[in-house]
Specification:
- The complex is a heterotrimer of chains A (264), B (370) and C (269).
- Helix content of chain A is 80%, strand content 0%.
- By secondary structure, chain A is mainly alpha-helical.
- In chain A, α1 packs across α5, α3 runs parallel beside α7 and α7 runs antiparallel to α10.
- Chain B is of the alpha/beta class and 370 residues long.
- Chain B has two domains: 242 residues, Rossmann fold (3-Layer(aba) Sandwich), CATH 3.40.50.300; 102 residues, BMC (bacterial microcompartment) domain (Alpha-Beta Plaits, 2-Layer Sandwich).
- A six-stranded mixed β-sheet of chain B has the order 6-7-8-3-9-10, with helices on both faces.
- The two termini of chain B are 48 Å apart.
- Chain C has one domain.
- Helices cover 79% and strands 0% of the residues of chain C.
- Chain C is globular and about 60 Å long.
- The chains are: A mainly alpha (264), B alpha/beta (370), C mainly alpha (269).
- Chains B and C meet through α1 of B and α2 of C.
Chain lengths: 264, 370, 269
């Protein structure tokens, strides 16, 4: 574990050394990625303004944006960082260093997540604000808040590993649409941007398997009952099992076929 | 002195799928996943190419073993398997007791591999020092302490004045030299060097050979496997040379014997006009007991390239030319050079040693007299 | 003639396997559709407010999204072609051949125009089938549509040339800050996602400097019959297109000269 953390911190340091010349590019790219969230927020603000609703829609959308940015980065990161390393040709060097492939993937994922914290820093700050707000209301609820956040992040990471495993096995040396499909499905069925009531009943059931749903609810101050917590824990375990299995299979295929080496 | 076996590999085979018509391209488009899916579904229908065919080898402690073969012989694939980057399809092997398949993660701690385009994996936007420090740190995290610091390594490689230079600004030869820095920074019992002399000038080749011989082998006591497509690069480094072609190890030669042979003999190569049998008889009369053989036919029975294995200092060039004109042999060119591997094999067969080996060699390199 | 031959060589390389092209196109269309689904579902929840300001707001927004997508594809084409060529060492080969750089540039522009056309057709069909997009237009409007298309291509190519020149002039090899900034501004203020009527007047000023605003509004006029001052919009668009193409050409020429001086298009050699 320590080795993974130290390796990811070293990789971040290397990124900083490379990016030192590209600060402006980094800042403007973060701005560009945030633009869609800003659009959602502006629409909500205008709707509040024109309907006279006191920040009702704005708060609703803001919680959705916070949940989406935090959990989607966990979902996308494993595949994104791996493919980035491959495309830049530096995966070869890292594969022959004395790290197991799994350790390497975990280190790259951790590095990616730490970068996501920088990119989504505004939304992380919002998350902290919501946590403090909940803490002031009810200590037990804030404990639930932290547990649900950790479980939701973990579930999304494991789903990210599931997609990465498929990427490795099928040798998809680029964009894997599975990540996009999972994220879109969860966003739609979780009611993070719009009320669940606009969806047909048969789709609303799927909200129970979506980590986005639980995190959005807890941020909005909706208490979680025991059954929901149990379902969340069970789905997290399930995602961990399939994610782990997929990743291990992907790594074995990678070494067996040897087709992820770009230059060596 | 009995040296223990460090690498033992038995009957390793590896097949790769032939490039399917739809090979996902990194460069073009975002539709890789569709192409990859189609390939995965159709995988059973694809043809496979045998890259390694029952390869066996052993390497002893502190030995420098050379592997020579043309491009596509399977040298790089063999090295990838030995470094734990690739699983063999058949066969088994171990390095210092670690199985190539079961212990493929641990093997990286005992094997260091330098690939042909290793420098492409460096961070081109970072300086030489920053790149080497990165490698040092990663090994330190895995409990492998560096045996030299960055400054001493660059001094050995004669790159000290480039320490702050970005890797991208180095010449290709310097980048190739820099790739070797990985072996000098940390100690691993086994080093695999895949064509380390590619792209280097004569002086740099000499420098690198000194480093391999003195620093890596003598000082650090490492077992080294070097691959090359040119025998002349490695014959004075290695104790033993394996010849590889089309995924098989054809032969194992002791370098001592090749050196003895090279000291004794020189080769005269000449391209002549005429009828084969007539010319052959004339050459045999000129060169007496020396071995005369046909190297190639350019136009059947009209232009033939002969090579003659002569004892050194037997003839001077002017004597040779006189004799050729005396026998009315019309030649296009005549060249005197050191013997190559082909000459060594011819010598073996003509003197009745290693006939089977020679047949294997000729067959695998598709050499024939027609 | 020689330039045309060379352009065709580059085009052939990129299109030689139609399955790659088709699979990329399909993937991009799926991405665009999926990205827009969430946005459109959000809009459903604001139905009451938006329908007060915009008649038939679904079509209004869909046209905006469609046009925005196509415009950005053309605009980003050249910069991404330079990025692709540089990081995959393609330029290390091309620039040593006895050709000018121009055929590579032109081939990528043509390739993107062709792909954008196909993409537009696929997106129109998908929006029609999935979201119930309905268009109403007169034959005479098609002439206007053709004119707007030509002007928008000129404007986007001009903007693309300006962004591509930053690749060399400001050494922005890992993403152009200008491109990202424009992305941010255009997405929010061009009227594609957020109807202009909802944007406060003092912020709306910025929109009037963007060619995208005029292009999207003109297409909405053609296909939905919204009320705008067509002549004024056309005039402004023409001026903007010509300015951008001239500026883009000059900057790109300067960038190529600078690249020849300091070999900034070569990665390793």
């Amino acid at each position: 574990m320590i080795k993974i953390i130290r390796t990811s911190l070293l990789l971040i340091r290397i990124d900083f050394l490379i990016q030192r010349k590209y600060k402006l590019e980094l800042i403007t790219s973060i701005l560009s990625k945030m633009s869609i969230y800003i659009i959602f927020l502006l629409l909500a603000i205008f709707t509040d303004y024109y309907t006279g609703m006191k920040f009702f829609y704005s708060k609703f959308i803001l919680t959705g944006i916070v949940v989406d940015s935090i959990l989607s980065s966990a979902l996308y990161t494993p595949s994104l960082v791996f493919i980035q390393e491959y495309k830049t040709g530096r995966l070869d060097l890292k594969m022959i260093l004395p790290l197991s492939i799994k350790e390497l993937i975990y280190a790259l994922t951790l590095k990616g997540m730490l970068w996501s914290v920088v990119e989504n820093s505004i939304f992380i700050v919002c998350w902290f604000y919501f946590l403090i707000y909940t803490l002031e209301k009810n200590v037990v609820l804030s404990l639930h808040f932290i547990i649900v956040t950790i479980l939701a992040l973990y579930s999304c990471l494991e789903l990210g590993f599931l997609c990465l495993g498929i990427t490795l096995s099928l040798e998809i040396r680029g964009f894997n649409p599975m990540v996009l499909l999972i994220r879109t499905f969860f966003v739609i069925v979780s009611g993070i941007y719009f009320p669940l009531e606009i969806l047909p009943t048969y789709l609303r059931v799927f909200s129970l398997i979506s980590p986005y749903y639980y995190l959005a609810n807890i941020i909005r101050g909706i208490k979680m009952n025991v059954s929901h917590l149990m379902i969340m824990i069970i789905t997290a375990i399930l995602y961990a099992i399939i994610g782990s299995f997929s990743l291990n299979t992907g790594i074995k295929n990678m070494i067996r076929k040897g087709l992820w080496q770009r230059w060596l | 002195m009995i040296r223990r076996k460090v690498i033992e590999v038995y009957n390793i085979s590896k097949k790769f799928r032939k490039s399917p018509k739809l090979e996902p391209s990194v460069i073009l488009g975002r539709g890789h996943w569709i192409v990859a899916l189609i390939n995965a579904i159709k995988e059973k229908n694809y043809e496979y190419v045998t890259v390694l065919n029952k390869v066996s080898l052993t390497a002893h402690e502190n030995e420098i073993l050379g592997i020579v073969g043309p491009n596509g012989a399977g040298k790089t694939t063999l090295f990838k398997i030995l470094s734990g980057m690739l699983f063999p399809d058949e066969g088994y092997g171990n390095i210092l007791g670690l199985d190539l398949v079961k212990d493929f993660q641990e093997i990286k701690r005992v094997v260091n591999i330098i690939g042909t385009c290793e420098w492409l994996t460096f961070y081109e936007d970072l300086s030489v020092k920053e790149n080497l420090e990165f490698i040092q740190k990663i090994y330190t995290f895995s409990g492998i302490k560096p045996i030299r610091d960055v400054d001493s390594v660059l001094e050995i490689l004669n790159l000290k004045e480039r320490i702050s230079e970005k890797v991208r600004k180095l010449s290709s030869g310097m980048r190739q030299k820099l790739a070797l820095a990985k072996c000098l920074i940390i100690y691993t019992p086994v080093i695999l060097l895949d064509e380390p002399f590619r792209g280097l000038d004569i002086l740099s080749v000499k420098e690198l050979k000194e480093i391999i011989k003195n620093t890596l082998s003598k000082e650090d006591n490492e077992t080294i496997l070097i691959s090359s497509h040119k025998l002349s690069y490695i014959e004075d480094l290695c104790e033993r040379i394996l010849i590889m072609n089309k995924g098989r190890i054809i032969s194992s030669i002791s370098v001592e014997k090749i050196k003895e042979f090279s000291k004794k003999f020189m080769v005269v190569e000449l391209e002549v006009y005429g009828i084969y049998s007539e010319i052959l008889n004339k050459l045999k009369k000129i060169f007496g007991q020396s071995i005369v053989y046909v190297f190639s036919f350019k136009y059947p029975y009209t232009r033939i390239v002969f090579r003659v294995l002569l004892a050194r200092k037997e003839y001077s060039i002017s004597e040779l030319l006189d004799k050729l004109s005396k026998y009315n042999i019309r030649y296009l060119y005549i060249e005197v050079e050191d013997p190559v591997l082909e000459d060594y094999f011819t010598y073996l067969i003509k003197t009745g040693i290693g006939e089977e080996e020679y047949e294997d060699y000729r067959e695998s390199f598709s050499l024939s007299e027609n | 003639m020689r330039i045309i031959e060379r352009v065709l060589v580059f085009l052939k390389i990129d299109f030689q396997n139609w399955i790659y092209t088709l699979s990329s196109l399909v993937t991009i269309c799926i991405e665009v559709l999926i990205d827009n689904i969430i946005f459109l579902l959000i809009l459903l929840s604001y139905k009451n407010v938006l329908s007060m300001y915009i008649e038939n707001y679904t079509n209004y927004v869909l046209i905006g999204l469609l046009v925005y997508d196509i415009l950005m594809t053309i605009e980003k084409a050249l910069y991404s072609a330079l990025q692709r060529g540089y990081w995959n060492c393609i330029f290390d080969a091309i620039l040593f051949a006895p050709n000018s750089f121009l055929p590579y540039v032109i081939s990528h522009l043509i390739e993107n125009l062709l792909l954008s056309t196909i993409r537009a057709i696929i997106l129109v069909l998908s929006f029609f089938l999935l979201f119930g997009l309905t268009l109403k237009f007169k034959v005479i409007d098609l002439v206007l549509a053709f004119l707007v298309t030509i002007l928008s291509i000129i404007a986007m190519v001009g903007l693309g040339l300006i962004e591509a020149s930053t690749f060399i002039l400001t050494n922005s090899k890992r993403g152009s800050p200008l491109s990202h900034l424009l992305d941010f501004v255009i997405k929010i203020l061009s009227g594609a996602y957020i109807p202009l009527q909802l944007i406060p007047a003092y912020i709306r000023l910025v929109s009037y400097f963007l060619p995208h605003t005029y292009i999207i509004e003109l297409y909405r006029y053609i296909f939905l019959g919204t009320s705008i001052n067509v002549n004024l919009f056309l005039q402004v668009l023409t001026v903007q297109s010509l300015t951008l193409i001239i500026l883009g050409y000059m900057l790109f020429k300067l960038a190529l000269r600078r690249a020849r001086e300091n070999a900034s298009l070569l990665l390793w050699i």
